Hints:
Strand content: 25-35%
Order of helices and strands: EEEHEEHEHHHEHEHEEHEEHEH
Number of strands: 13
CATH superfamily of the largest domain: P-loop containing nucleotide triphosphate hydrolases
CATH class of the largest domain: Alpha Beta
Largest sheet: 6 strands, mixed
Helix content: 25-40%
Structural class: alpha/beta
Number of domains: 2
CATH topology of the largest domain: Rossmann fold
Oligomer: single chain
Number of helices: 10
Domain ABC transporter: 2-232
Keywords: ATP-binding, Cell membrane, Membrane, Nucleotide-binding, Translocase, Transport
Distance between the termini: 32 Å
Membrane topology: Peripheral membrane protein
Radius of gyration: 21 Å
Protein name: Daunorubicin resistance ABC transporter ATPase subunit
Main location: membrane
Amino acid sequence: MIRVENLVKVFGRIRAVDGLSFQVKEGEIFGLLGPNGAGKTTTIRILTMLTRPTAGEVYIAGHRLSTEAEQVKKIIGVVPQHINLDQELTVWENLELHGRLHRIPREERRRRIEELLEFIGLSDRRHDFIPRLSGGMKRRLMIARALMHHPRVLFLDEPTVGLDPQTRRKIWELIRQLNHQGVTILLTTHYIEEAELLCHRVGIVDHGHLIALGTPGELKARLGKVVVENFYNGVVDYHFFGSREEAVNFAAHLPGTVLIREVNLEDVFVELTGRRVRD
């Protein structure tokens, strides 16, 4: 559904995206995981035609982005990282405006708005102005706005940034429901849990490079199943094992404080880069 080939974006002396290549299969949730400044947002801006690449090609549903932009616009929906709803309009009016921009006929537009408000749980807030909504409600409305024209592909840039854990999980459930309806989803995130629990496959990005790609299970299996954290003399060491039994036997002889837990994607990132995703 999405094919990215040797994508490059240069800002002055900075190569924000440096030879990025990957594919997103139709019907999957694909995540780009990495710290702030890794090149995730720049990549999604290129894929959604908000920024032109310095080099490389992008294909969406078989359409070449550089020459068939109008065809691509008809089949993608975009949810940016920052809230960009019209603050002076109501919930309904924000969706109404977007529907008109896509030239959706009046009756079809009204039916679609009703359907989407029900889907995101904001039917009873249709006449509220945007400042009266919570952060989670605004995020849900932005997703609904992106879905007005029935896109086949949905791009979400850090869809749950700044939200509390409960609201974050509500957004995840919306994303899963959309995916079950056949929408292909590409999202960026720096939340380890989000990438592990939501994405079918994950591309780990650092300094504009794709440094690892696979399912969360495949990426974690590169290190093992269980990790032993050993804090001693002000230093934390990490040791990886294929089973909890091996980890327990090893930990029994260690000085200091010991924690035994399952391997996660942050462990993979640390092993590849020497630092944490949050850094």
